[in-house]
Amino acid sequence: MVSDPGVCPSLAKDGAPRCALKSFCRRIPVSAPLAGVGLLIAFLSTFGCLVRAPGLSMSMAEGDTLISVDYEVFGKVQGVFFRKYTQAEGKKLGLVGWVQNTDQGTVQGQLQGPTSKVRHMQEWLETRGSPKSHIDRASFNNEKVILKLDYSDFQIVK
């Protein structure tokens, strides 16, 4: 059993290396390689690349980058308060944008906000919706990184 979980496990309790190459095995925190992964993700995100490293959550990998994405939800989504629940969920997450019914019986709109919050809302649109709705599928298009929000609130468009 290792006394300090953040330290190389090949060290004995007294801190001396137990491996054959004593000069090679130093007291290096196990988390040090993860710092390099974080720097790589930060570097790639400056180019607008949406990267998720294995084992990292969306919020850790993507930070507070603002994105905009259009959506359309298919199924029984009209006449079941879907727009009202979508607006409430968007506001709860701190997102801005809009939602409206279409003539084709779908609901469409746009989401804007931090990537991790938009991802949460996308999942909500695909799987939950309003209590009486039945979602067949949701599509998301025109995703892009934005520098500022285009809206100040989350609106229902009639």
**Quick check: average pLDDT?**
77
Could you tell me the strand content as a percent range? 25-35%
CATH class of one domain: Alpha Beta
Per the principal axes of the C-alpha atoms, what is the gross shape?
globular
Based on DSSP secondary structure assignment, what is the total number of beta strands?
A: 5
Radius of gyration: 23 Å
Q: In terms of per-residue confidence, which ranges show pLDDT below 50 for 5 or more consecutive residues?
A: 1-12, 17-28, 46-61
CATH topology of one domain: Alpha-Beta Plaits
Q: What is the succession of H and E elements?
A: HHEHEEHEE
Number of helices: 4
> How far apart are the termini?
63 Å
Mind summarizing the main beta sheet? 5 strands, mixed
Helix and strand content put the structural class at: alpha+beta
Spatial arrangement of strands, main beta sheet:
4-1-3-2-5
CATH architecture of one domain: 2-Layer Sandwich
Helix share bin: 25-40%
Question: What's the helix and strand layout?
Answer:
Layout: H1 32-45, H2 58-62, E1 66-76, H3 82-93, E2 96-101, E3 107-114, H4 115-127, E4 134-145, E5 154-157
Parallel strand pairs: 2-5
Antiparallel strand pairs: 1-3, 1-4, 2-3
Helix pairs in contact: 3-4
Protein name: Acylphosphatase
EC number: 3.6.1.7
Active site: 83, 101
